Description:
By secondary structure, the protein is α+β, with helices and mostly antiparallel strands.
Amino acid sequence: MSLFGSSRDISFIKKINTELLDNIIQQEVDYYKYYLSETKGSSAANLYGEASSQKTYYTAVRLTCILDRGDQTYAADEQFGIDVSQAMTFKFLKPKLSEIGLVPAAGDIVEVRGAFYEIDQTNENQFIVGKDGDYGKSVGAEFGESLSIICVGHYTRVTRLQITNARF
């Protein structure tokens, strides 16, 4: 048995992080999960059968997270005018997502202050005491746990989304 990283230590770390996000930082976002089975393919679908403008999403779930905002960049196009883009990083606690059964994936939408961001990639590589108890190689290694899921997304136009109001 290890000196640090017991189930009691892990429980303490999860509780402190939950209190920090929910009671101190309090940054809330609305998370829209991509609803694949209800998304209709259309004649405007691309070569791979992906529906470009007919995507459907579940009703939003309000989550707390840590946001890392990228700088806004502007590109001028002679035909369409100025276009804005911005990258955003969302850091969620995995235990909170597991409670509601949410698994972030590419294509999901996150709303922050009225702006919508499409998730491009997800990373799950922060582990308590550097170990993942689900995939331990040594005998009796029952310590360690995945702590967070980090999602990176880009600003997307609201006109291409079909989104309803968030539930609380």
